[in-house]
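Quick start: what a row looks like.
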Amino acid sequence: MTGSPTLSLSAADDMATLREVAELFGAVWGWTAEGLPVSSEMLRSMAHAGGLVTVARTGDRLVGAAVLGRDVPGEAYGYIAAVRPGLADRGVGFALKQHQRAWSLEQGIGVLRWTFDPLVARNARFNLTKLGAVVRDYERAFYGRMSDRLNGSDDADRLVPEWWLDSDRAVAAAAGQELDPGEPPVGSPDVVDAADGPDGLPAYAALPDVRWVRVPADIVDLRRRDPGQASVWRGFVRDRLGGDLGDGFVAVGVSRTGWYRLERDPA
């Protein structure tokens, strides 16, 4: 961020800051019939219970925040994170996650889990390719049907990334080494199964030990323009990606063109 104030990160538990965080989450996710995504009072309780609320600032301006809670011993769970609108691709999200990683390792926590929408290509690539997390679990209708600004009004399927904080993948990613999965070999004679997506373009390719599944470039925009088509994509990805995860594959990366790469799970 050349020419911009230095990004600073810290843990927060005072109510004034937590109110800023709650308002930021509302600005990003929107308000629902239940109100803000997370209230400042709930954030205060989560911090008091041994969790972590990380805030990122440039100067005095809050530009991002992330919330982490305790899980079973040795693990933690990420509840919500957001970067102020207009500041994507500035490194704020990566810095927030690395602050969580450093704090967790200091606390004796080795694994972080959270959920994300499998159809949001940007988040998928960030979680798997930029951070080094992997995905084994596909949760159908995890939140039932949602109706916020980003999720539209459809079944809220979720993937559950596992971020093993001291793994070679996580260490390399923390050092800035992007774990590029490559691109799918569409049209290769090694492909044993293939399918087009709802847009009529190749969106699935299966090889003996690798699977590739494509998602739309911008599902949030598609949900605004054509909710029906977005729902068809959700069904396609649920069947293909969810099916392969259920068959013992693990998602290890997302290409620049929005293809998940899945490999046979060595575990």
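That is the whole record. The longest helix spans residues 227-246. The two ends are 40 Å apart (CA to CA).
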